Amino acid sequence: MRDATVASPASGPYPALARPGRIGRLELPHRILMGSMHLGIEGDAAELDRLAAFYLERVQGCAALIITGGAAVRPEGGGDHWFCLTDPSHRDQLAQLASRVQKAGGRIALQLFHAGRYAYSIEIGTTALAPSAVECRLTRETPRAMTEDDIAQTVQAFADAARFAREAGFHAVEVMGSEGYLLNEFLSPLTNQREDRYGGDLEGRMRLSVEVVEAIRQAVSGDFPLIFRMSGADCMPGSTTWEETLTYARRLEQAGVDALNVGIGWHESQVPTVAAVVPRGGFAPVAAGIRQAVTIPVIGANRINTPELADELIALGWVDFVAPARPWLADPAFAKKALSGDRRGLNVCIACNQSCLDHVMDRPSRPASCLVNPRAGHELRWPLAKVSRSRRVAVVGGGPAGLEAARAAAERGHQVTLFEAERQLGGQLRLAARVEGKEEFWETIRYYDEWLWRLGVDVRLGTAANPQTLLEYDAVILAQGVEPAVPDLPGVDLPHVVRYTDILSGRVAAGRRIAIIGAGGIGCDVALYLMKGGRPPERVLGFLGEHGVQSLDQVPRSVTILARSRRIAATVGRTTRWVVRSELKALGVAVWTEFQCRSITPEGVVGVMQGEERLVEADQVILCAGQTPRRDLVAALEGRVPLEVVGGARDTVRLNAARAIREGFEAAQRI
Ligand code: SF4
Description:
Layout: H1 15-18, E1 21-23, E2 26-28, H2 48-60, E3 66-72, E4 83-84, H3 88-103, E5 108-113, H4 121-124, E6 129-130, E7 144-145, H5 148-168, E8 172-177, H6 182-187, H7 202-205, H8 207-219, E9 226-233, H9 242-255, E10 259-264, H10 284-293, E11 298-300, H11 307-315, E12 321-322, H12 326-330, H13 334-339, H14 357-361, E13 392-396, H15 400-411, E14 415-420, H16 428-432, H17 441-454, E15 458-461, H18 467-470, E16 475-478, E17 482-484, E18 497-499, H19 500-504, E19 513-517, H20 521-532, H21 538-546, E20 558-562, H22 574-586, E21 590-592, E22 595-601, E23 604-609, E24 612-617, E25 620-623, E26 627-629, H23 634-637, E27 643-645, H24 657-670
Parallel strand pairs: 3-4, 3-5, 5-8, 6-7, 8-9, 9-10, 10-11, 11-12, 13-14, 13-16, 14-15, 16-27, 18-25, 19-20, 19-25, 20-21
Antiparallel strand pairs: 1-2, 17-26, 22-23, 23-24
The protein binds iron/sulfur cluster.
């Protein structure tokens, strides 16, 4: 049965996306490129086949042009698990990669990269280089200011790298000049405090970028396609101005760039640039502004995650191409589905960063994959092969782990029945989707709903599976999920005490003065849900204001988070944790840390903080104090049927949607 409530509002085809285009002399069949993504396995010869499999699947998915992850032009501009173009074995691997993509009928551009002060000294074996010795908030290190000799070597390295790319069979190069890496650092007065000809006014600060482009132009013939990824907005107070950015764009065009790919923000920015709170297409106006300043094509990225949005941006003349990156992790057939109008079949990137950026930004880093597509980066290990013997598989639970287990088992050719006790699919995904900024989870539920239907999964909603029924199957995957944990506190049974599931499901109305026990990801989500949900949307306020109608602009409500430890949102990934914290602060959520709860009373929560007993007054107390696994079927099935227990039902340690979906997927591969 299909769930009409999660139907996609959009369907293809997308005529603007489907139009052929050109970057320099490079003819492209349509407008969807694959933006550069660092997978964290680059440079390791033993992983080359794995990397190639990742790219080749995206060639099959019809990427018009694949831009590789950054390849460092010099050792000090890279790091662990990066390609480095001064290493002959890395050059050899890259040449093989280009050749395999070409043979498969794809096009590939090599991204030429220098991390500048974003390099970690422990990885590059020396102090990072930068225009000036300005401490870096990302690495917590102070780089060394480059000498003119360093600069000359770097320019030469970019030129050599471009020559290599052309000779190795790449179709183009992209120079990485945004996101706060070396060339961006030279442009910005924040990090460029030089007094020589590479610093000072704009002419001096953009000199290195211009010299790099001119040197590449000299090293390769004039018609070898050259893309420059420039920063459209650094999102750093006091950095390059908008007027300077437009002048820079024009100067890059004059120097010989064939297309500008517009990046947004630095890794140190205090403005969310890739998190889910950024509205879809939120930075497209920046790219559109740059497009007005130049005559070469402009490529847009950053939160362009659906074909209908990409199509609209191109149709309206905001950008000429799109180069989404993460959406290609989420769905290796992004362009193929877009161009064939299969919007309902698309697995949409939800901008969670949990399995991609959080992995590669961690130290030590971990290989990138994808929350909604755990096969990403593992295409070689988990080929799309049908099983030789189809089995009858029961999946219990329609939350993230169960949905993926059912989808993946059916994709492999098993006959799958999914039992879900609720009348809707989604489980914890459905709760999370209600939090403003996490609405993208609806796309994930829609995707599963669609594919379970296409793959012929027998979905039984409102049906609790019993052991007798399950024993009739050849294999069972238990993905029953979790229950909210109820702490052992006096007063926990009082009528004003509720669980987070009661609030997020809408079963219980929110109070006015609220205490949340627990400061993990769920506690923070509930606080955001309550505070953001108390504010009418901007469009509504705008409409009411325009027509002179008086209304509330915020439902009066106070929320206090009670954290046992000193940190809040500790379980949230590195790239999003700071966004959550700053949103809570901006919304006026009070946070009491190192608060040891002692009891709940009709007046609120009593606890000890800094050695003193304190009362947090509340008319509603919401329990977000962890979860317990639902495993009631395990004992009845163990040893009697091939059994997999996955996700929260297995255990709740560091449980999140990424782990649940991955375990569901892997269980399906084992059957
Ligand atoms: Fe997108 Fe999240 Fe997948 Fe990263 S992990 S590609 S942000 S859905």
